[in-house]
Amino acid sequence: MNQTASKKAEEFGFHAGDIVQEWLWDDDVDDSIREKIENLTGEELVDEDYDSAVDGVILWWRDGDDEDELSDTIVDAYAVLGEDGPLWVLTPKPGRPGAASSIVVQNAAKTAGMNAAMPLTVSDDWNGIHLRAFGKGR
């Protein structure tokens, strides 16, 4: 049973009714991922200006963006995330414009006090890396 998160949005760890915050949206994001999350949760994604607690986060990251900025953004996103809510960094897959090395994401996550899982294919053009605070869960 090796389905990608794009085919089974539940693999992101979001649930019906969850408020999911989206960081660093740009016109290159995969709208099918956004749509599947919204269909699963029944809620529209909220942007980084949303000022209440959220149940999950997706953060779009591309090569050429500053690694220190990624660490800071992870810290900011985690600050509004409810306890144990999923936090995902989405990056273009290798060979795609803006493809970011998973090492960059892992280093930024470590700086932010998080563990980074192995990349998961979430669409034809994007990978997702699930982050967890040190000492939290699997």
UniProtKB/TrEMBL annotation:
<protein>
    <recommendedName>
        <fullName>DUF3052 domain-containing protein</fullName>
    </recommendedName>
</protein>
<dbReference type="InterPro" id="IPR021412">
    <property type="entry name" value="DUF3052"/>
</dbReference>
<dbReference type="Pfam" id="PF11253">
    <property type="entry name" value="DUF3052"/>
</dbReference>
